[in-house]
Amino acid sequence: MLVLLIDDNRKVRQEIRDYLSSQSHQVVEADNGLSGLSKLKQHKFDMVISDHIMPIMDGIKFCENALQKHLVSAKQLLVLSTKIEPFLEKKLSKLNVSLLSKPVRKELLQDKIDLLDSSLKSDSVA
């Protein structure tokens, strides 16, 4: 699976990248939503994992732009946040985008990946 990982914190990106790589996924990184949007226009990713709070363009704006421009489907997006607040949950729910809290528990991340993987496989069969 080709994954776009967007987070302004290099340490967080490295930790998630190392886990994804250990599971045989290819990872492309960006340090803010605007940079992530640029990379999303250049490549077709299977999954996009984005931090919520970032400079230049936050995770919500990134998701809104990516969906509006039809660069990715909502089921391919996953937003990470240290602050899970009702506003964030409501906004992402309206966009139909998944949310995980930080620090990321690998088993929960793997559950999201497995769910997406099975959904992508069923889409390609249909």
UniProtKB/TrEMBL annotation:
The keyword Chloroplast is annotated on this UniProt entry: no
One Pfam match: Response_reg
Response regulatory domain residues: 2-117
InterPro entries in the cross-refs: Bact_response_regulator, CheY-like_superfamily, Sig_transdc_resp-reg_receiver
Keywords for the protein's UniProt record, in alphabetical order: Phosphoprotein, Two-component regulatory system
Domain of life, per lineage: Bacteria
Residue list for modification 4-aspartylphosphate: D51
Protein's UniProt name: Response regulatory domain-containing protein
